[in-house]
Specification:
Strand content: under 5%
Oligomer: single chain
CATH architecture of the largest domain: Up-down Bundle
Shape: globular
Structural class: mainly alpha
Distance between the termini: 19 Å
CATH class of the largest domain: Mainly Alpha
Number of domains: 2
Largest sheet: none
Length: about 400
């Protein structure tokens, strides 16, 4: 509440433009990493495309981790979020258009490494900007709006691959235009209301700046997201093969349809849950509920014997996980310990998005060949159950002092 007792609220127009910009990041990497990059790798590497793609994934995860922390921190130091976002946007577009120019796998890997850095030059400062201008009373709504990101990312991939709509050579250009159209409006027209308390520097310390250790709530939120993201990364990478093991006749279009449906249905649920959390001042209860439902979906997947049961169980998992990750992104902003290092801290939280790409393959290789997908899903359900316990036992309002 402000001094006159009116609710402290950011303008709806800005929130919508911000959500569109956040979706622009997903439009950049979802169709590119899942469709266009593997196709280009096959052209260059031939039979060695899977191994080469693994190298790209590994080095790309390193670049994304470094970029998220580094550029978030630089935007803290300079106090100029927009400048970094615009620079990252320009570089991201240029590097996307440079992908067809790569004539060898090492050159392509170098381009992807630089592209991941430039993409996180957008995403790191953009995430921190929300913490600068969105009050706690609207962080649930913010999380709900962020559910549009994975949905629009998936639909952008479906659009650019529609037969006859755009040539294979022109798909990267279309992706670049979609990203520009999504991010540029908030840069040009976004005029957020100021909330000085959100950017007020912390009290001066007698021993200088130093390193601020993470708070207990921040550690819980980070660990909970990591556990859920491991499950999400495993399903993102191996959903195709799991459905094939259930029903070898299931077509690719049907698989993609189930994936897109889960992301789309998650949007209204996340919005409703986020608004409920704001109105009732229960920021973490929807996270607990969605993580519990996600674990239930994975248990259903472990015991699914027919295609209909498998699809229904995956929908439960996919919807709940998308809701969790979207709402988590909004509520994370309320528990970070320092406003003047918000970009840095969000970059550290971004490790929960990149580290699972390094963990998940070893889990899958260790379990699936000998024990099947059901053992993998039960393990992932147990990990997600750990996230439920971490968040369910957190104080209702664990705001840092």
């Amino acid at each position: 509440m402000d001094e006159e007792g009116a609710p402290r609220r950011q303008s709806t127009g800005f929130l919508l433009l911000y959500a569109l910009a956040a979706a622009g990041g997903a439009m950049a990497y979802v169709p590119f990493l899942t469709i266009l990059l593997p196709a280009r790798m096959t052209e260059l590497a031939g039979a060695g495309d899977i191994q080469s793609l693994g190298h790209v994934t590994f080095f790309g995860a390193i670049a994304a981790s470094l970029g998220g922390i580094g550029f978030g921190w630089l935007s803290d130091i300079t106090g100029n979020r927009r400048g970094w976002i615009l620079t990252g946007l320009a570089l991201t577009v240029v590097l996307l258009l440079a992908v067809p120019l790569a004539q060898s796998v090492p050159v392509l890997i170098a381009i992807i490494f630089a592209w991941q850095l430039s993409l996180n030059m957008i995403l790191g400062p953009l995430s921190a900007w929300a913490g600068d201008v969105v009050p706690d009373e609207q962080k649930g709504l913010l999380g709900g709006l962020l559910a549009f990101s994975p949905a629009l990312g998936a639909w952008s991939g479906a659009i650019i691959t529609l037969p006859g709509l755009v040539s294979a050579e022109g798909r990267l250009a279309v992706v670049a235009m979609l990203v520009i159209a999504a991010i540029l409006p908030v840069m040009l027209f976004g005029r957020p209301r100021a909330f000085p308390e959100l950017t007020a520097p912390p009290p001066a310390r007698a021993d200088g700046e130093g390193w601020t250790p993470p708070t207990g709530p921040a550690v819980r939120m980070w660990t909970a997201r990591l556990l859920v993201q491991i499950a999400e990364a495993a399903l993102f990478a191996y959903l195709y093969f799991w459905f094939r093991s259930i029903d070898p006749t299931m077509g690719d279009n049907e698989k993609a349809g189930v994936f897109s449906l889960a992301l789309t249905l998650a949007v209204p649920i996340a919005l409703a849950a986020g608004r409920w959390a704001d109105r009732n001042d229960r920021p973490f209860l929807p996270l607990v509920a969605s993580a519990a439902v996600s674990a239930t979906g994975m248990i259903g997947m472990a015991f699914a014997s027919g295609l209909d049961t498998a699809k229904a169980s995956y929908l439960v998992f996919g919807i709940a996980t998308t809701v969790f990750l979207s709402l988590h992104s909004g509520q994370t902003l309320r528990i970070l310990p320092r406003s003047d290092r918000r970009g840095r801290d969000l970059g550290i939280f971004n490790l929960t998005n990149t580290v699972p790409s390094l963990i998940m393959p070893w889990l899958t290789i260790s379990l699936v060949p000998g024990f099947g997908f059901d053992a993998l899903f039960l393990l992932l359900a147990a990990l997600t159950g750990g996230a439920v316990l971490l968040l369910a036992t957190m104080p209702r309002n664990p705001l840092p002092a």
